[in-house]
Amino acid sequence: GKRIRELQREVGRVVAAGGRARKEGLVRELDGLVAGACVLCGEGAVRMIDEPFILETDNKEEWAI
Asked: I need a labelling partner for 53 at 20 to 30 A (CA). Which of 2, 11, 12, 42 fits?
């Protein structure tokens, strides 16, 4: 979440400044965080647990099998 956004901003600053070695370290850390974030059971999924799967605004016929 927050650390991923921080790393993305920092990578942008480092790239603009031409700091290749620092960029590689930041990208490795960012890759590790992103790879470890499960879309099914991660923080975002937990926050959305109370949200309906099919919204009121959805065409329910599109969900028919």
From this structure: 2
